[in-house]
Every structure is written in structure tokens, then in C-alpha cells.
Amino acid sequence: MKQVISTEKHPIKLWVDQIEDSAINQAKNLANLPFVYKHVALMPDAHTGYGMPIGGVLATKGVIIPNAVGVDIGCGMCAIKTNIEDMDTTELKQLMSHIRKTIPLGKNSHKEKQDESLMPQRGDVSNVMEQLYSKALCQLGTLGGGNHFIEIQRGSDGYIWVMIHSGSRNIGKQIADFYNKKARQLNERWYTQVPINADLAFLPIETEEAHAYMNDMQYCIDFAFANRKQMMEKVKAGLLEINQGNVVFDDIINIAHNYAAWENHYNENVLVHRKGATRAYKGEIGIIPGSQGTKSYIVEGLGNPESFMSCSHGAGRVMGRKQAQRELDLETEISRLNEKGIIHAIRNTKDLDEAAGAYKDIDVVMANQKDLVKIKVELKPLAVVKG
Ligand code: 5GP
Ligand code: MN
Ligand code: MN
């Protein structure tokens, strides 16, 4: 840990050394909420989010806060190790074109509904969720926009890996917005004594609304897992085709970094919100992506109780999307990727929002969390498709 900041109510524990004042102010607002358990933890990739910093971990007693989960509910990473030792440019380009043919990118969805047996069981979801279901059937196995990506990497273990970053597409966003609005209305009606910021509106866990949110959130998490898995199946099929069926894959690693769940910490059951944070129980395998053109990592958790057994979910942004498009130099960012021989998709200034220069230095981020995780495999990018 790098630093502790105290507030009137609860301290903030930071593993980050490069962070904007606005993110610290958000953490202070959080730490001053009465239902915070122990402290607020900021991972080394933390930066300003909507209401709560991304890269933040918040444990609560008695309430759930929709905006402490994040809008892309269940967003996360999956990765798979192959037994392929090398891929040349022709093979990489073949795979990229297979990906573009079989996986809708950006805002696109499939034209047809996907097989319902590939979707998670709905169980006890609300009407709001039910109404989103038929659209979700076309969104299963689609990447989404922004910083979602599919990357082919070379591992320090000598093998080719595939990594995918994606979430619950539009359904998670709809659910997040619906319940944040609902929480605001309820807070204004009943809980005006709590010094809340409308962006941190909460639902007391015994309420019907909290139950409905928890069920719908869980469905979005399950959907996001299935979404990543479906895309990974498509990439696997592409690799098998290129290698005449001769590829062996390890088990898929599939983890969420935007969610809330009941967990036991310091011998109490609390709701842990991870908003852009990875669970890192002792021995647990996690995935920490760097950025387009830098290294990513497969890690093993150390189970540090002070971060509520969590670590970073990436490198984290140093600048917003618009700022990156304005300030980064296109030539510099392109040659940075070209020099490493990476097949990438930076073509014009608009694409600079996702350039490596818009993110923190992953080496520093990893050095700042040595007490949270240990590195198992280092992954260097060979080719990347962005959402
Ligand atoms: P978020 O979940 O907050 O949207 O971002 C996850 C993390 O993914 C970012 O903090 C960044 O470190 C990482 N990332 C973004 N784009 C890329 C990419 O193209 N390749 C890799 N390997 N990592 C990326
Ligand atoms: Mn996402
Ligand atoms: Mn994400």
C-alpha cells in the first residue's frame, strides 16, 4: 500500500501514486458514507469514474449502491492459453479476419437471435430484465465499443494466448441506469438525512428494489460471462481452422471486474462492490490487461485483506477519451505499435482515445500491487481488434 488518507468517517487506503484530485474527492465522498465497512480501497489503476472512481473497492453493510458496480455490469476479462508456440503475420491476419467475420464489433449485434441454450438461466429476474431479454439474444457473443478488445498475445511461458475484454453489452447499462434512478428517487423520499451525492444513491438491502437489483445484476454478470465465452469459442474455431484442427486449449479463465457480491472480510459478511477491480483471493487466478501495445498479465492473488482481496483491473486511464484525441500525437502512437510489430487499428486521431499514451504505465501499476498479486505469466501483444 502506498498511502492512507483519513476522512471524518472512514479512511481511504491507496495503492495508487498517480491520480487526479477529482478521483480523490470521489473517494472522500464515498468514505464519508455511514454504511461503509472499514475503509475504501483504491487500486493502482484508479481514476475518476461516474460517482465512484474506477479501480475502487467498497464494502458496505446494509446497502447496495448501483453506481459502485459500474454501468457495464459484469464487464471483465477472459483469457485462454493455447499449445501454439508461434504465429506468423499471415496467420495473425487470417485470424483477425475470422474474428471480424464471426464477432460483431462496436455497437453491432448479431442479425439473428442466438441459440437460447447458450444464454444463462433467468431465474428470478424483474420485468425490466425480461423486456431486455429478446434484444440480449442478439447481443450474445458481441464485443461492444470503446476499450473492449480481442488480443492475440505471446506469453512468457512460450505459448500463444487469446485475451478478450467485454461486458454485458446494452442490458447491463439499462439495468444500471434503471436502478440508479430508482435509488435516487427512494433516497430523496426517505433518506435525506444521509449526506448523499445523487451519483452514489443506495438501496437498503432489505427493500424489494434492492432484491430486484441484485437478481438483475446477477443475470447481467452471468450474461457477460456467457458473452465472453461465446466470443472465445469463435476465436478458438478460427485458430483450429488455421492449424488444421491441431490446437490444444487450456481451460478458459473468465472473470468479472464490475460487480457486487456477498463476501466474508475481517470475519463479517459484507457486500463488496468492485468497480473496475479484480478479485484476488489467495491463490486465485486473475487477468490484468495493460493497454493497446503494452504488456498484460496473468496473476495469482495473495489474499490481502486490506484491499478486500482485490487488485487492479488494468492499467487505468491517465486522460479522458476526448483529451487523448486532442493531446496525443498520432505519429508517435502509431510508430510505438509499429516498432513492436503489433497488428493494430489506430488509423486517425479519433482512435487515439484507446492509444497506450492514454493509459498509465502498466509496469508502475504492477510494481504498486506487489502486496496484492504475484505475476504468473507476462503477455506481449501480437495483434489487437478494438470495439
Ligand atoms: P475498463 O474495464 O475500465 O473499461 O478498462 C479495462 C482496462 O483494459 C484498462 O484500464 C486498460 O488498462 C486495459 N486496456 C484497454 N485497452 C486495451 C487493449 O487494447 N489491450 C490491452 N491488453 N489492454 C487494454
Ligand atoms: Mn466494459
Ligand atoms: Mn471492463
Automatic annotation (TrEMBL):
As recorded in UniProt, its EC number(s) are 6.5.1.8
Q: How is the cofactor bound?
A: Binds 2 manganese ions per subunit.
Active-site residues from the entry? 313
The UniProt record gives the binding positions of Mn(2+) 2 as: 165, 257
Going by the record, the broad EC class of this enzyme is ligase
* GO MF terms, alphabetically ordered: DNA ligase activity; GTP binding; manganese ion binding; RNA ligase (GTP) activity
User: Which positions are annotated as binding GMP?
Assistant: 147-151, 257-258, 296, 313-316, 386
Pfam families linked:
RtcB
Give an example GO biological process. Answer: DNA repair
Ordered alphabetically, the record's keywords are: GTP-binding, Ligase, Manganese, Metal-binding, Nucleotide-binding, RNA repair
* InterPro entries cross-referenced by the UniProt entry: RtcB (IPR001233), RtcB-like (IPR052915), RtcB-like_sf (IPR036025)
Which cofactor(s) does the record list?
Mn(2+)
Residues binding Mn(2+) 1: 72, 148
Swiss-Prot/TrEMBL catalytic activity:
a 3'-end 3'-phospho-ribonucleotide-RNA + a 5'-end dephospho-ribonucleoside-RNA + GTP = a ribonucleotidyl-ribonucleotide-RNA + GMP + diphosphate
This chain's protein is named 3'-phosphate/5'-hydroxy nucleic acid ligase
List the source organism: Plebeiibacterium sediminum
